[in-house]
Amino acid sequence: DKRKVDFYHSLPVSREKLYLVNFVTGAVCVIAPYLVLRVLTLVCAHAMGFGEAVSVGTYLGVILCDILFFLLLYAMSALSTILCGNTIIALLFQLWVYLAPLAIQMMHEGLLSLYCKTYASMSYSDLFNHLRLSPAATYFMVNGAHYGSGLADNFIRAGKPAYMLLAEYAAAALFIIALGVFAFRRRKSERAGTALAFRPLRLPVKTFMCIVMGTAFALGFRLIGGKFWLWPGLVFGTVLFHCIIEVIYAFDLRALVKHPVQMLTILAVTALLMVGMQKDVLGYDRWLPDESKVTGVKLDADRYADRYDMSSAEPLNEAGNIEAACRLAQLGRETTLDPSLGDTTLYQSHLLTFYMKNGSVQRRRYMMKDDAEVDGLLSSMYGSSEYKAKTRALFRVDIDDCSSI
Fold this sequence. Notes:
Number of strands: 5
Helix content: 55-70%
Distance between the termini: 72 Å
Shape: flat
Largest sheet: 3 strands, antiparallel
Strand order of the largest sheet: 3-4-5
């Protein structure tokens, strides 16, 4: 309450200590009953004769996983509350913080699919990596210290260790907690009751939200009405959210037309970003793999989809296969980006996936001519012993031990 906040902050306690006491109190109110219920669940399992079915190590992993996810989401909620001066605005801002990174990545994929000729639709693993941007969504895909739930089985190999993800989230939770301490110390008492407690954040937050929502409206209008409606959707979405945010900032409907210069500037920036995607300014289609930086490749051809499927296989790591895949990418880029390509039914479609040394994964779909060089490169990869061993169980049979075949 802005009428009482000065008295509250006049207590002989440092801001850092006040924040940590509040944070720990809120966490204990959730974690303590959670642990009690977990213990009761374990006791009930043993009392009903199912104790042997419960692995203590797995159970402890589930508890650790739940607490880590809770602390991360809780820290994000606390920081959102500190940045805002109004409870309702804080809840809306919290939803934005939870879901905006995932929404932005999905919209980026949508724009790539519209304007980039070599774009390949996301694989299950790509989609899961995008979901990791939202801990609130990823929580339902992790079972203790391993991936494994009804959702996770569709995206990744069930039972795969999730230690790295949990470590990343633990580090993120510590960072956000520290950021909350810093923000709480700098937050002025008289900001209670305002939309944003830090005035310098108003313009960046408004700009970011307007660009994202303007792009979302553009994609939505285009999906519903066709190409022509992309630009009207962009203008409508950007202007609409600029007006909404101004009203929220001022808590006054008369602020609808406030700051018209800022609105036009944000609209121009959004339009420029859209044109940049249309013209492929970042060079998505022009990208070619550096053979020295590739650690593995996958190759899937539409024509051989029923016979050659590497979606669930391990990448090819032999130098010869990597060299052949990089050459295929060069030939495919030349053909795909050729303005005189014409009827694509006369060409082969090939999906190439490159695993890079820096940990990134690049997927491109190319149209290729059915000529001697392309056929030779394909034959060299499909005919390699590594490809056969990684795509067909027949080539992994142990002749000396056929008990399980």
